[in-house]
Each structure stands twice: as C-alpha cells, then as structure tokens.
Amino acid sequence: MYLYDMNKIVFLIFLMFSFTSISQERATLKKLQRDKEVSKAFAEKSIREISDGVLLVRLNFQQKKIDYMTKHENLSGANQAKKKAASVNKKIANAFAEKFDFCTVYFFKMSDSKHIRNQQFDSVTFFDLSLNKVDSSFLESDNYLIGEFGRIKQDTTQYYSDEIRDTSVEKSKSKTYYGGTKNGREAFIIMDRQFNQIQKPFPYFAGLQAVLSEGVRFKKALEVINLNLKEYKTQVGTPEE
C-alpha cells in the first residue's frame, strides 16, 4: 500500500512538472511572437518617419582626447588628434554626399549625445554635408533617427518596452548606448531616438569591408544601407495602402 501511494505521488509530481514545462514553453513562444510583431510595427513606423524626416549622424571630434592632451601640454598630440578627427569626419560627410540620398542628413558631435537624447536641440551644434553649421529648425520631436559608424551591439534585448513607445518622450531606465563596444562587427548603424539599435525587419546596419581604404569603406556601407532603406520603404508602403 505504501509503495502504491509513493508511485502515485511520483506520478502526480511528474504531471505537475510536465504541465509547468509546457505552460512555460507556450508562454515563451507567445512572448517571442509578440516581440516579433512589436519589432515589425516599430520598424514600419521608423521607416515612414525617416523617409520624410532626418537622419542625424553622430561624429567623433575626439574632443575629450584633445582636451586631455592640451591640459597636459601635449599640444603636438592634440593638434594631430584634431587633424585626424577632421579628416575622418570629412570622409564620412563626403561619403554621405555621394552615396546616400534616402533622406536628409545632418551631423552632430558625440559630445552632444546627451542633448540629442533629451531633445535639447538648441544646445546642439548641427552640421550639413559640407560640415557647415546649421540651426535646428528642421527638427521635430518625431521626425528623425540617429546613425553612426561604430560596432553592432550584441544585446538589443532591452530595446522595447511592453508596447511600441514614443521614444521622443520616453523616460525609461532601459540601457542606452553612447559609445563603441569591443563586441560586434564594424558597420554603419541606425538607432532610434534613445540611441538603441533598431531591430529587424528594419535594415538597421551595413557592414564595413575591412580590406578597403577608409573613405571607400564608408561609401560602400552607405551605398548598401541606402539601397536597403529604399527597398524596405517600398515593401512597407504607406499606411493607406
């Protein structure tokens, strides 16, 4: 009798764990499907916004490095860093002028990232394709995305909340990115207004080819992402279609 009761208990425990496992699997599959739908909706919203809006591209002027060298009286090093940054940024601007026509492009300094995130546009210095200063009158709270040459982030799991959020006013404590990372492929990357990578199906990056010269690498990547954005816009269509 005792053995029978023990077998019955073991069987009931087995059934309980099996039911729990199945329930968890169903919940996981449901969440994955919902996340996929949210990503798709956000991607479509983003492509429509940027096609009639602005891509703000972050440039590294190496200001921290220059300031540090200047403070420690390494004027030669500071001048060299300044020239190098100017050369790289000029190549990026030229690449956009030559290879990117999907939408309007303006540039901003990496040091202004916090102001961009908080939409304090009056505190930001913007530049056109000739790297001449322009005012911020072209910007609205929801008509832009952010891009940069950097490395693809490996973890975008904190990208969305439980619903499609308006990142222009979102005050979430979720992780945001302001610099490079040692992980991921070098690429031109497009991010949302909180500096988070936009997920697929949005064509959010184009890789840099290592064997090419710096200027050509920039141009090739922009040529690819320009084409991908156009194709995705055609695929998505307009809300009325």
Break the fold down into its secondary structure elements and pairings.
Layout: H1 2-51, E1 54-59, H2 63-71, H3 75-99, E2 104-109, H4 113-117, E3 126-127, E4 133-134, E5 144-151, E6 186-191, E7 205-207, H5 214-236
Parallel strand pairs: 1-2, 1-5
Antiparallel strand pairs: 2-3, 3-4, 5-6, 6-7
Question: How does this model look, in words?
Answer:
With 241 residues, the protein is α/β, with parallel strands linked by helices. The protein has one domain. The chain contains five helices and seven strands. A seven-stranded mixed sheet has the order 4-3-2-1-5-6-7. 22% of the residues are buried.
Strand content: 5-15%
Helicity, in percent?
A: 40-55%
List low-pLDDT spans.
Answer: 156-182
Number of H- or I-type helical stretches:
5
Q: What is the string of helix and strand elements?
A: HEHHEHEEEEEH
Strand numbers in spatial order across the main sheet: 4-3-2-1-5-6-7
Distance between the termini: 71 Å
Query: Number of domains in the coordinates?
Result: 1
Strand segment tally = 7
Largest sheet: 7 strands, mixed
Q: Which whole number gives the mean pLDDT?
A: 82
- Please identify the structural class as seen in this structure: alpha/beta
Q: Compute the gyration radius: what is it?
A: 24 Å
The coarse overall form would be globular
